Amino acid sequence: MSVPRRDSPVFNDMPLVVLALSAVIAAVFLIGTMLPEFELWSRYLGVVITADIGEHPSPLGPWSPFLLHVFLHSGWLHFAFNMGAMLAFGTAAARPFGHGGRGQLGFLLFFFTCAAGGALGHIIANWGEMAPMVGASTALSGCIAAAGWARGGRNGMLRLAVPWLLFNLVLAVLGTQTAMTIAWAGHVGGLVTGAVLYPVFLAVFARTRRF
User: Fold this and answer.
1) CA-based, 20 to 30 A from 63: which of 5, 16, 53, 134?
2) Class of domain 16-204
3) Which stretches are transmembrane (predicted)?
């Protein structure tokens, strides 16, 4: 009698690019907790700066934080929340790209495009104010929209994206009245970027797929 196969619900068919991104983000966070010097330099490279502070502190130039902020997190809770979102929404968004090199590259470009869109949204919403931002949730907000596209087309995207959008708009209203420092505009920027561009990235990088 054959024994039914039991696959892991988390790691079954998980794209390599998602595992690789998760591993790098985890490594940067864990090394930063042990080596303050490493954390300091990584923040020079990755923190999104919104206030006019003269010359940008990143030695890689003012554009590096648009991408590198995804590797930085402000604490264990922030890190754990984003890792959970990566495993759930990142995996769902990456699978339609396929397992080939072209598809993996396509998801990687999509992920960092959403990160850049989130950084831009945060900068616009906080122009002239000191509101530094770190975290992968900009890119993962785009993956929320993408996961909806992957599971149910445009209607599926709206079912996931609209509640996340409304939640962040509530944060925008409450942010001036509470001590919360959640970068709601970064989430919205990443979400909108993902909702608009995910079908484009799939058309270019993925196997033939229609929504």
Assistant:
1) 16
2) mainly alpha
3) 16-35, 66-93, 105-124, 130-150, 157-176, 182-206
